[in-house]
Amino acid sequence: MSSLRTSRTRLVAAAATAVLATLSLSACNDGTGAQDEGSGSSTSPSSATSSPTTASDSPASSGSSGSSAGKAPSAATDSSGGRSAGGAATTAAHTPASKAPVSSGQPVTCEGSTTKTVAAPLTRPVNHMLLTVTNTGSKSCYLYGYPVVRFGEAQSVPPVIEDSQPQAVVTLKPGESGYASVNLSATDGSGANGYTAKSLTVYFQGRSGNGSVGAGAHPPLPAKGIYVDDSLKVTYWQQSMDDAVSW
Questions:
Q1: How confident is the model over 43-88, as pLDDT tens digits?
Q2: What is the C-alpha separation between 50 and 44, in angstroms, rounded?
Q3: What is the rounded CA–CA span in Å between residue 98 and residue 211?
Q4: DSSP 128-147
Q5: Higher model confidence: residue 23 or residue 159?
Q6: Share of the chain above pLDDT 70, in %
Q7: Res. 134: pLDDT tops 80
Q8: Residue 179's CB: how many other CB atoms inside 10 A?
Q9: What is the mean pLDDT of the chain?
Q10: Residue 37 in 3-state DSSP?
Q11: How far apart are CA 180 and CA 129, in angstroms?
Q12: Distance of CA 36 to CAs 25, 32, 39, 41, Å?
């Protein structure tokens, strides 16, 4: 009896073991376990995919040399609108220009090719004319002595008023002007050999004061001409207009 009971117990135990094994196998084959383990790993590809997207949305913070090269022209633009990378050339393009040309090199002697001369008759003093010489060259020039003027076909040039000599040689920077006045005729009518001149030539003296140098100037005169007589005189070149017309 005892032996039979023991055999039945072993049989029940064996049957229970077989049932548990069958249930375990079914659990493994229904895909539930594989799904649980895969849920953790499925997150990783998603994260890896989002990482490149984040990097491409912010090229400025990536610090890569390729992105920096692409942005260089914009980054190199300064607040004034010029490119700081352009250096001196860009700076030079925005520098305000001077009102007069800048003198370069050693001063030269003023003469007709580097100056412009204007002859203007004056109402006061009467019977006077003002000569204005403007330096149109790129170098400073010296107006030595006095203007050597020739009206029409005159064979001689008028003398200078000695007392009008300035203390220093008149120097004209580019764009500056010098002055001299011409006493055309006697105000009291005492002058002789008067005539009406229709043309004027102005020559420039050199440092030695002997003769003229360079080209002469040919300022136009009024259409009716200028009346001159043998009392014709000129002043030395002056730095200011007031000094020129005071004689």
A1: 443 443 444 343 334 334 333 334 333 343 333 334 334 333 333 3
A2: 10
A3: 36
A4: EEEEEEEE-SSS-EEEEEEE
A5: 159
A6: 58
A7: yes
A8: 21
A9: 73
A10: helix
A11: 9
A12: 17, 6, 5, 10
Beta bridge partners of 144: 205
Place of tokens 């009971």: 5
DSSP 211: S
Q: Cα(99)–Cα(69) distance, rounded to whole angstroms?
A: 41
Closest CA to 207 of 145, 162, 161, 122: 145
What pLDDT, in 10s, does the model give residues 10-46?
544 555 555 444 444 444 444 444 443 444 444 443 4
Residue with tokens 């003229």: 212
pLDDT score at 117: 98
Question: Cα(74)–Cα(179) distance, rounded to whole angstroms?
Answer: 55
Nearest to 169 by CA among 201, 204, 138, 202: 204
d(CA 72, CA 77): 9
Output 155-158 pairs: Cβ under 8 A, ≥24 positions apart.
158/182, 158/232, 158/233, 158/234
